[in-house]
Amino acid sequence: MLLSELSYSVAELAERFGLSSHGDGTHRIDGVGTLAGATASQLSFLSNSKYDAQLSATHAGVVVLREENLTSCPTAALIAKDPYVAYAKIAALFERLPSAPPGIHSSAVVAASARVSNSASIGPCCVIEDGAVIEDGAILGPHCMIGTDCTVGAQSRLVARVTLVIRVTLGKRVLVHPGAVIGSDGFGLAFDKDHWIKLPQLGGVRIGDDCEIGANTTIDRGALDDTVLEEDVRLDNQIQIAHNVYVGAHTAMAGCAAVAGSAKIGRYCMIGGNAGVLGHLELADRVTITAKSLVTSSIREPGEYSSGVPLQANLQWRKNAARFKHLDEYARRLSALEKDKNHE
């Protein structure tokens, strides 16, 4: 794509995204950058007050900001209620994705019973097994494996080395990053006297439209029913979703989070990095779990929840850790003192 095709005037951006403009509307933009590093041909944004000081010194050609920050802006501006959202939409105009021509690469292996749309792009060394379906406009990057009875929805993109094991259905416009494994065995075991017996994992995985699955994230298929992600769920890298988990629409999870088997996560939830949710629990809609928290009981009301001990100097932490062992003793003594006081 030629650079001229990626150049937009301030006025064009304002009209396209329903924003108010200030300053030179003819100034043209061909990329994006940070407030501190952007050049005169680039767009930047201000959404976090801790970067206010960088605004007055920026060399960006145009800045997306709130109206209250306009007086500090030395250049053209686009005014938005939520500058971060507006920036995300504008920045997408400048994303350069590699081309993926329709067709099947000569090194790919496609089972005779698989169905691959003529408009799909199948990259080098991909394997598509029996009963798999690749719908219109789907893109499989190199070394992807699509297992038996899996479906890749229209316009979905598997970047590279993505594995759909068995009975996985991806909706439309799903983006899956390298190394993700979807539909692997759930961790189902029964202990018989002196050894483990593996429970067969007979369900599948269903992922809704417009979801995103991060690099090296794993989603296990269900033991009986399917593991489900509703539409517009966003998973960061290295996340573990266990068998029979149900994740509501528009929920986002940060890196290294883990959700144990049969947990149900509501809609519009946010799970922080390295947080965990124990099995068979339920989280209501619009629950936020902060980083490194462990959810040990169901949450019935929306809101923000945290657990764990904040970072402390090691000497202070060691003293407090020693006192943790006596918490029950202290609680009993306090209760006894309160009873004695009440009897006086």
Structural summary, described in words:
By secondary structure, the chain is an alpha/beta fold. It has 3 domains: 3-94, Udp-n-acetylmuramoylalanyl-d-glutamate--2,6- Diaminopimelate Ligase, Chain: A, domain 1, CATH 3.40.1390.10; 162-305, UDP N-Acetylglucosamine Acyltransferase, domain 1 (3 Solenoid), CATH 2.160.10; 314-343. Helices cover 14% and strands 29% of the residues. The protein contains 5 helices and 39 strands. The strands form 6 sheets. An 11-stranded parallel sheet has the order 8-11-14-17-20-25-28-31-34-37-39, with no helix packed on it. The longest helix has 17 residues, at 327-343. The chain is flat. The model has no long low-confidence stretch (mean pLDDT 95).
